[in-house]
Give the backbone structure.
Amino acid sequence: MKFEIKNYLAKLQSLPEQRKKIILWTVVVILGLTMGFFWVRGAMDSLSGVGKEMQNVKLPEIDTSQIPAMPSLDILQTTTPSNIK
């Protein structure tokens, strides 16, 4: 097996530069797609775990009955650019 690897490497070294680049980029793309697949899968698992944890979060309730209503904005209705001099 060790001899086969040496023969394969010698064969690769004897190839023209253009073929070496094609082989290199093919290997890089295949590895990138494989790593990307596992990265996306891991991210989906992590995000689904966050979603499950968010269901357990209890937010405090805020009593808004004591907050006064907004004051009337009648002054804005009576003041228009045509009234301003």
Remarks:
- Residues 16-58 form one domain.
- The mean pLDDT is 84.
